[in-house]
């Protein structure tokens, strides 16, 4: 445990020094501010270009609801248990229909007593944003308190699981299942991308899960289909968010767009926050890849 904490401390220290060394891209900042100035709600954005070591932070340290983006910290919590030898991706589980939970996902439609395994559960949690498997994975990871301690150790003190977590009942009423900041959720994705979340081998596997997304109609629709990405969306009535890593020709860039207190609470493709997220993603691609400007197709409905 002592050695593990030393390694985590060094990782967080290096990450912190890198953050402070980043240069603000003022031109991009102004473009983004112009893009979001009329948004009817609260919005936070964080953008980081790894090769240029530049960033843009707009309300990037403000706390926002994660909605289903909380499944990224839960993913790390599951892999922490794998790292400790307490879980295996091949572990077998039996689905109980009592676990059925509404919202997104497929496992709620499984037959009672159907057999599954941890790898399938993790995949459903991330690819289809499955709520049943997400709650199950949260339990298997040791619960919200265990995940929250791990986030603290990774230097992400505002990234937390609130639901089904003792002592966080009141904050759950405010933020829902989870909370984070635009900067922190990007940094968590960066730690995974760079092999610094737990260890390189486990980070690699986590990243492979994050690259498979069924919900690709927001930011991903504004990036050429042949470009590799890793991402997670989150949605509740008054908050929509997304975090994305893009493997662009000029170098990786990562960004998050988080919103709350949204006036438009519709569940359509024309939702204001979702349309704005698409515009931001398009702007970023054209900005970082001016020689490969992309004309996105109209959504296929």
TrEMBL record:
InterPro entries cross-referenced by the UniProt entry: Beta-lactam/transpept-like, Beta-lactam_cat, Beta-lactam_class-A
Cross-referenced Pfam families: Beta-lactamase2 (PF13354)
This enzyme's EC code(s): 3.5.2.6
GO biological process annotation, one example: response to antibiotic
GO function terms (MF aspect): beta-lactamase activity
Residue stretches making up the Beta-lactamase class A catalytic domain: 44-259
Catalytic activity entry: a beta-lactam + H2O = a substituted beta-amino acid
Domain of life the protein comes from: Bacteria
Family: Belongs to the class-A beta-lactamase family.
Annotated protein name in UniProt: beta-lactamase
Organism for this UniProt entry: Sphingobacterium wenxiniae
Lineage: Bacteria, Pseudomonadati, Bacteroidota, Sphingobacteriia, Sphingobacteriales
């Amino acid at each position: 445990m002592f050695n593990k904490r030393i390694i985590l401390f060094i990782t967080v220290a290096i990450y912190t020094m890198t953050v402070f060394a980043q240069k603000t891209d003022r031109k991009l900042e102004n473009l983004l501010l112009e893009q979001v100035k009329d948004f009817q709600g609260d919005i936070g954005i964080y953008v980081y270009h790894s090769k240029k070591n530049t960033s843009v932070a707009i309300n990037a340290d403000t706390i926002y609801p994660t909605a289903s983006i909380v499944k990224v910290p839960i993913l790390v919590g599951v892999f922490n248990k794998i790292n400790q030898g307490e879980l295996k991706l091949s572990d077998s589980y039996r689905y109980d229909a009592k676990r059925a939970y509404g919202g997104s996902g497929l496992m709620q439609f499984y037959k009672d007593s159907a057999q599954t395994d941890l790898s399938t559960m993790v995949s459903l949690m991330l690819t289809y944003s499955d709520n049943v498997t997400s709650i199950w994975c949260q339990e298997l990871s040791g619960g919200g308190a265990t995940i929250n301690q791990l986030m603290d150790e990774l230097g992400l003190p505002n990234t937390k699981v609130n639901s089904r977590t003792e002592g966080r009942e009141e904050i759950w009423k405010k933020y829902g299942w989870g909370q984070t900041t635009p900067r922190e959720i990007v940094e968590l994705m960066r730690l995974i991308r760079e092999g610094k979340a737990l260890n390189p081998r486990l980070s690699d596997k986590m990243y492979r899960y994050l690259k498979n997304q069924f919900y690709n109609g927001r930011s991903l629709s504004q990036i050429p289909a042949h470009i590799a990405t890793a991402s997670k969306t989150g949605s509740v009535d008054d908050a929509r968010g997304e975090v994305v890593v893009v493997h662009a020709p000029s170098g990786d860039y990562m960004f998050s767009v988080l919103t709350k207190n949204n006036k438009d609470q519709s569940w359509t493709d024309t939702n204001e926050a979702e349309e704005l997220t698409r515009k931001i993603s398009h702007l970023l691609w054209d900005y970082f890849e001016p020689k490969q400007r992309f004309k996105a197709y109209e959504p296929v409905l």
